[in-house]
Amino acid sequence: MDNSVLAIVVPCYNEQEVLPLTNKRLRALLDSMMQDRLVSSDSYIMYVNDGSRDDTWSMIAGYSEQDTHVRGLKLAGNVGHQNALMAGLETARQDADITVSIDADLQDDINVIPEMVKKFDEGNDIVYGVRRKRETDTFFKRTTAQMFYKFMTSMGVKSVYNHADFRLMSRRAVDALCQYEERNLFLRGLVPLIGYKTDSVYYDRSAREAGESKYPLSKMLSFAIDGITSFSVKPLRLIFYLGAVFMLISLAILIYVIVALCQGRGVQGWASLMLSIWFVGGCVLICLSVIAAYIGRIFTESKHRPRYNIEKYLK
Ligand code: UDP
Ligand code: MG
Questions:
Q1: 104 CA to middle of ligand 1, Å?
Q2: Residues lining ligand 1, judged by CB closer than 6 Å?
Q3: What is the per-residue pLDDT for 234?
Q4: End-to-end distance of the chain based on CA atoms, in angstroms?
Q5: What is the number of structural domains in the chain?
Q6: Same domain for 19 and 43?
Q7: Are 187 and 154 in contact (CB under 8 A)?
Q8: pLDDT band, residue 135 (cuts 50/70/90)
Q9: Which has the closest alpha carbon to 131: 150, 112, 118?
Q10: Residue 105 C-alpha to ligand 2 middle, in angstroms?
Q11: Are residues 62 and 47 both part of a single domain?
Q12: Distance between CA atoms of 231 and 296, rounded to whole angstroms?
């Protein structure tokens, strides 16, 4: 089998600094792949503009005007990386046999894309790009990301270790993905649920070529909470265990108090009392917040709002 139409889907949010370089490299790669007849000459790159506030869109529009192999999808506002990616994939599946999703910042090695396509030709529907090591990430990014993976696994969310959103998907895999209707998207948790034959390619992640990370700590945290609460009910169960431990502790205190009373030693000191009030109060609030996180999830899912709005599609 040869000559499948490939779409490289690139979500972009305020990426004006890196976009010229990204486009140059991706175009060169696409050219060489088309020349090698690895993919069809109808293949293209699709930049998804996620409501950027800088010149990103005008640059994308310029590229797509000059170049038939570049397309631009303009979303009406900022909907976040995961939704922007979904918009790109859903649009690309109309005419592409395979999609490869990749970040705009060139942190993922684009040179493994031909290898991904070869694995597709060998019959894989999903090919994950997996980072070998993350030496070029900052210490902070590296440790928080590693903690994130460990925590996710311990919470019962299956995801591919050290894989972000750099992956190849066949059309039928994207079709399957589109059937998952949840609004709180966590793609790297969803994709493994699809099934089909999968494989991985390995690469070294490099530093961001230009511009700043669009994932500050606050966004990373809410991404982690999204990931856990949309895939696992384990935290709800943990609350029960926490409550049980507290019951046991209070039982022990009760026994101690009764014994002390019988021995004629008065129970004194309000410090311990205050301490336990605050301690228990804190625990109750934490537990409530976990439940609130799930209720919030139900709230957003039940509204069935569209994930994104397409303003323009330049082919
Ligand atoms: N991105 C997006 N919408 C957002 C935030 C980010 O489309 O609201 C894109 C961004 O342009 C980039 C990708 O998501 O292509 C990953 O972002 P970034 O590289 O900043 O994340 P990091 O690699 O630091 O985790
Ligand atoms: Mg990045």
A1: 7
A2: 11-13, 15, 50, 78, 80-81, 84, 103-105, 107, 213-215
A3: 80
A4: 26
A5: 2
A6: yes
A7: no
A8: low
A9: 112
A10: 5
A11: yes
A12: 14
